[in-house]
Amino acid sequence: MHNGRDCRKFRITDYILAVLLVFAVFVLIYAATLPHEDTRFDNEEALIFTDGWQYVSASGEKYTVSLPCTLPNNINGGIRVSHVLPENSGAFSFNCIAFYNAFSECRVYYNGRLICTAGEKKKGARYIDSTADSYWSIVRLPSDAAGGTVMLDMTSKYPQYRCLGRVILGTKASILFLLARTFMWQQVIAFIVFVSGIVMLGGFIYDRHGRTDDYSALFLGMFQFWVGVWEYSESYLFQFLTGSAVFINALSFISVRITAAMLLAYVSEKIRGHWKIWNMCLICAFAAETVVDTVLQLLHIADYIRTMPALHLLLIISAVTIIFEIFYNFIVYRDKSTGSVGLVVSTGMIAVLTVAAVYDVYFG
What are the residues whose beta carbons fall under 8 Å from the beta carbon of 346, sequence distance 6 or more? Predict the structure, then answer.
């Protein structure tokens, strides 16, 4: 009778919570449909200034281009583009131009006069102890800039970074507001994944049985932790939270390697008895590549951009390995346990998110 009363009380609690949830949803729908005054902060507008740029090739041919795009060099070590600034109006006014320059130096001209130089001013290659890293630059224009011509020169020692991506026109406040509104989701995702890793690690430490027999929770928690760290380091808003470009650069360099190694360790733990030696070799390769590349940078032999092909090769081999092992275990060995199914589903989700991230980098 005691157990029956406990079960009955538990079911009644479920019904009460379900009714409360439905009630809350209807109240929110009703409140959203009521006539209301817009109380959002009425910030000044900023213009995504990417269309209609003029490009003159080295042979003198003129083109109208939209950024971002890949252009051949028309100045020494970089590209030059120009644009006529719009007129100020009641709906839109501006006094600043912003752009994102990675591993490069950008010079800003107004009506042929140099008004700003932003970016790296290093004589030699970029190393872990001297990097300026990539960042946003906001340049104040002359007070009578409307209707004038702004020209941007982007130069870099690395051909893949001789390009202009996002350019924004507005006031400093409107530009910062637009950046926060557009890219804050990266910080949110990084925080959620990071906290998930902390929770997973806390659960592993609390569960003594899991700590002695099954280390998959440890590796999964570490994977989530470092994915969150890497997402933060790669976000476009790190300047709002961390002012040290050297720290951010090292954070990205280290976290992406540890992330891959932890995922390999997690898969190896979940798929017992198969390919453990190969997975261990890959993990050792990541560790060796990290140490070697760091030493090369600290000794000023080669900076990390020039050593990235080794990392890319390891990442491709690891991705193929993980996909092969999971689906071989699931299809050939017919391991349809809950853990195996969850591994297939989670790997599929990671693959979709990876494709989306790559698409955003190249086409976003």
Answer: none
